[in-house]
């Protein structure tokens, strides 16, 4: 919480904008497992377990992690698509969790989501114009003719020809569908858009088109993005800062370049070294840290540091004490007991 | 080095409701013994279909191999009857698929499925096959191999299941292993494990591998040669370094430009405009034409021939590759 007081992205520092758009404090989401009469209280999956971060206006925060790390749950809990178990989500300083009724509806306009699968997230029985107009109608903001005008505007913004408006989603390719999804998300002029694996199902050349579009829209509309993805190369390209999640916790958070060039947490180091680089010369010489084993079950996370079962540095303190998420260098946060020790050892070895 | 596989002018099509989809339109290449070939391309480029054709897994009447020749050493695969082909699959040529959960039978233990291969192809006794099966699991890095044989696929994680698939693929020590996006469904740290595993097996067993992937990063680290596929054609082919460092085809250049450049993060991605062609409605001429910035009138009329860029190892199918290369700043 308070230890995040100085956690600021460089972009924000330039803008001298101290107020975060959204601040997440100690967010937790536990899902019960095993239903029925005899289900025990402690049978639960700790999908998100004490996550804190901030997103500033116009900023992109990348959230990376492997499957089961809880990154999608963070995104959904942020938007209150699912209710958190505990913790706070402050949107412009106001606790989103306590807002109810019409006010909640108004706040929801400000936060939208782009989903991974453009095939499953668009209703096949609706025409493009109805898909895009639906949020406007639900929010009851505009009159009919104004809605029509707004739809044309939105199609134009996402680079789709106006004549597409009367067609159905199945007539479009994955990239075009994702543009429709983006238009829908932008309909209510949000301040924050959560992109949950928004490019994962697209071909490489189409991914690049969509990422370029998202970046243009950000510049034009001053959007903030929470960009959730497992493709670290693309996350580094689009993000200002990056948070690395593992088993429901943030392991490291820093500026995108710093986290790639000088990662501190052993998990981040392994994760980055596992990403193949599209350059045969680099691949030929680089050393890969191959992690043993797999991510443990979030129903029975390891005691202490959740990463310790796969960490080659793990010592006794790692199993007895949960590492604090702390600021190790200015604006560079990590949760590991041994960072200073590891860094000192690495400094000795040339 | 001798050629293990020689494909000449392979053509595959599928009959669908929307018309005939011409998935592979004249693919030719050779593969030498012990080589690792990377095949890259986007969905619908024909990379998986051409692999299925090598395995003769294109099933009529909807899908047919319309022409060409596939030779595994002296064997003409397309002329074999089904019974002979069954002896080739798994024994001489094995395949690892993207999604191990749908490739394994969910109601049979992995031991049963591994033993089946060993007994069928190698004629091993139950006891010998069981011994061999635990050796294989050991080899692919599955601990407590003997106990794991009685597990069902759903009891294993995605990475473990892919290890089982690899064990099954190498069980009969095939000459050629085709890996079709074997790591796409896996997390990066697990992907790294599987890549290291296949690399090690390839070295130790002298396997010849065709590795199909949409991920140019994965291919960069393991292939000796690369085929770039687009609309059922190999549009560029060459040693891995030539392809990544001096690509000539506008599509290859576009593909490389679409991935973030870790050296230069400030710039925009150089995306390829438009989208892949409708494979049921291909025109004469170069299929990349509608997305190409270098197109000339020649591109409209005919598919470009296979041109050699340097001494024959690097080839490209583009009418204008000489000028494209000149504007490599793309």
Please, could you describe this protein's structure?
The complex is a heterodimer of chains A (350) and B (330). By secondary structure, chain A is of the alpha/beta class. Chain A has a domain at 2-110 and 190-296: P-loop containing nucleotide triphosphate hydrolases (Rossmann fold), CATH 3.40.50. Helix content of chain A is 35%, strand content 21%. Chain A has 13 helices and twelve strands. Chain A has helices spanning 10-15, 71-78, 101-109, 128-139, 144-157, 174-186, 204-221, 232-238, 256-261, 266-274, 280-285, 316-320, 339-348; strands spanning 22-32, 44-55, 60-64, 86-91, 94-95, 111-114, 192-196, 224-229, 241-246, 249-255, 325-329, 332-335. In chain A, the strands form two sheets. Chain A has an eight-stranded mixed sheet, with helices on both faces. A four-stranded antiparallel sheet of chain A has the order 2-1-4-5, covered by helices on one side. In chain A, a hairpin with a 2-residue loop joins β9 (241-246) and β10. In chain A, α4 crosses α5, α4 runs parallel beside α6 (174-186) and α5 crosses α6 (174-186). Chain A is globular, with a radius of gyration of 21 Å. Chain A starts with 9 loop residues before the first helix and ends with a helix. Mean pLDDT of chain A is 88; it is low at 1-15. By secondary structure, chain B is of the alpha/beta class. Chain B has a domain at 230-326. Helices cover 35% and strands 24% of the residues of chain B. Chain B has 13 helices and twelve strands. In chain B, the strands form two sheets. An eight-stranded mixed sheet of chain B has the order 6-7-8-3-9-10-12-11, sandwiched between helices. In chain B, strands 2-1-4-5 form a four-stranded antiparallel sheet, with helices on one face. Chain B starts with a strand and ends with a helix. The mean pLDDT of chain B is 91. The interface between A and B is large, with 43 and 43 residues.
Question: Topology, pairings included?
Answer:
The complex is a heterodimer of chains A (350) and B (330).
Chain A: H1 10-15, E1 22-32, E2 44-55, E3 60-64, H2 71-78, E4 86-91, E5 94-95, H3 101-109, E6 111-114, H4 128-139, H5 144-157, H6 174-186, E7 192-196, H7 204-221, E8 224-229, H8 232-238, E9 241-246, E10 249-255, H9 256-261, H10 266-274, H11 280-285, H12 316-320, E11 325-329, E12 332-335, H13 339-348
Parallel strand pairs in A: 3-8, 3-9, 6-7, 7-8
Antiparallel strand pairs in A: 1-2, 1-4, 4-5, 9-10, 10-12, 11-12
Chain B: E1 3-16, E2 19-32, E3 36-40, H1 47-54, E4 63-72, E5 75-76, H2 82-88, E6 93-96, H3 100-103, H4 110-122, H5 126-139, H6 145-148, H7 158-170, E7 176-180, H8 188-205, E8 208-213, H9 216-222, E9 225-230, E10 233-239, H10 240-245, H11 250-258, H12 297-301, E11 307-310, E12 314-316, H13 321-326
Parallel strand pairs in B: 3-8, 3-9, 6-7, 7-8
Antiparallel strand pairs in B: 1-2, 1-4, 4-5, 9-10, 10-12, 11-12
Helix pairs in contact in B: 4-5, 5-7, 7-8
């Amino acid at each position: 919480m308070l230890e995040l007081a100085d956690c600021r992205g460089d972009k924000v520092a330039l803008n001298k904008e101290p107020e975060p758009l959204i601040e997440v404090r100690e967010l937790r989401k536990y899902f019960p497992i095993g239903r029925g009469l005899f289900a025990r209280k402690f049978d639960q999956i700790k999908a998100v377990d004490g996550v804190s971060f901030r997103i500033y206006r116009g900023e992109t925060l990348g959230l990376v992690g492997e499957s089961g790390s809880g990154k999608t749950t963070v995104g959904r809990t942020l938007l209150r698509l699912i209710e958190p178990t505990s913790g706070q989500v402050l949107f412009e300083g106001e606790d989103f969790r306590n807002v109810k009724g019409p006010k909640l509806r108004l706040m929801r306009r400000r936060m939208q989501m782009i989903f991974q699968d453009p095939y499953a997230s668009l209703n096949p029985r609706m025409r493009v114009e109805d898909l895009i107009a639906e949020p406007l109608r639900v929010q009851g903001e505009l009159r009919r003719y104004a809605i029509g005008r707004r739809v044309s505007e939105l199609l134009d913004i996402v680079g789709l020809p106006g004549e597409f408006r009367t067609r159905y989603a199945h007539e479009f390719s994955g990239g075009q569908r994702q543009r429709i999804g983006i238009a829908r998300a932008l309909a209510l002029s949000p301040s924050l858009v959560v992109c949950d694996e928004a490019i994962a199902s697209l071909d490489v050349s189409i991914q690049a088109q969509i990422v370029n579009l998202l970046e243009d829209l950000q510049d034009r509309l001053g959007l903030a993005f929470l960009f959730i993805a497992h493709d670290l190369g693309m996350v580094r390209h689009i993000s200002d800062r990056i948070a690395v999640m593992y088993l429901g916790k943030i392991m490291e958070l820093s500026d995108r370049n710093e986290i790639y060039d000088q990662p501190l947490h052993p998990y981040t180091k392994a994760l980055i070294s596992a990403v193949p680089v599209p350059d045969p010369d680099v691949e030929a010489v680089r050393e890969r840290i191959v992690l043993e084993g797999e991510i443990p079950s979030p129903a029975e996370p390891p005691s202490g540091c959740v990463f310790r079962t796969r960490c080659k540095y793990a010592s006794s303190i790692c199993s007895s004490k949960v590492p604090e998420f702390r600021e190790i260098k200015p604006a560079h946060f990590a949760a590991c007991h041994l960072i200073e020790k590891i860094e000192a050892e690495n400094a000795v070895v040339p | 080095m001798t050629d293990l596989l020689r494909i000449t002018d392979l053509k595959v099509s599928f009959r669908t409701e929307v018309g005939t989809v011409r998935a592979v339109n004249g693919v030719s290449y050779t593969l030498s013994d012990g080589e690792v070939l990377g095949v890259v391309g986007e969905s619908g480029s024909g990379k998986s279909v051409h692999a299925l054709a090598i395995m003769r897994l294109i099933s009529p009447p909807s899908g047919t191999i319309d022409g060409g020749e596939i030779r595994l050493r002296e064997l003409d695969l397309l002329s074999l009857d089904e019974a002979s082909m069954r002896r080739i699959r798994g024994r001489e040529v094995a395949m690892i698929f993207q999604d191990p959960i749908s490739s394994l039978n969910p109601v049979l233990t992995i031991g049963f499925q591994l033993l089946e291969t060993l007994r069928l192809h190698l004629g091993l006794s139950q006891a010998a096959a069981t011994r061999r099966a635990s050796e294989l699991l050991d080899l692919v890095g599955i601990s407590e191999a003997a106990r794991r044989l009685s597990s069902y696929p759903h009891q294993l994680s995605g990475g473990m299941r892919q290890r089982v698939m690899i064990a099954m693929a190498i069980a009969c020590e095939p000459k050629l292993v085709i890996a079709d996006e074997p790591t796409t469904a896996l997390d990066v740290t697990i992907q790294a494990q599987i890549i290291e595993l296949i690399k090690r097996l390839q070295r130790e067993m002298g396997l010849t591998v065709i590795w199909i992937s949409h991920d140019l990063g994965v291919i960069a680290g393991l292939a000796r040669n690369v085929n770039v596929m687009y609309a059922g054609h190999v549009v560029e082919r060459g040693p891995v370094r030539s392809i990544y460092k001096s690509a000539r085809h506008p599509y290859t250049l576009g593909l490389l430009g679409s991935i973030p450049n870790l050296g230069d993060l400030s710039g925009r991605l150089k995306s390829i405009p438009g989208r892949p062609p409708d494979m049921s409605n291909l025109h004469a001429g170069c299929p990349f034409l509608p997305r190409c910035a270098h197109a000339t009138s020649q591109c409209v009329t005919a598919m470009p021939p296979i041109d050699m860029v340097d001494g024959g190892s690097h080839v490209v199918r583009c009418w204008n590759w000489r000028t494209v290369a000149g504007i490599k700043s793309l």
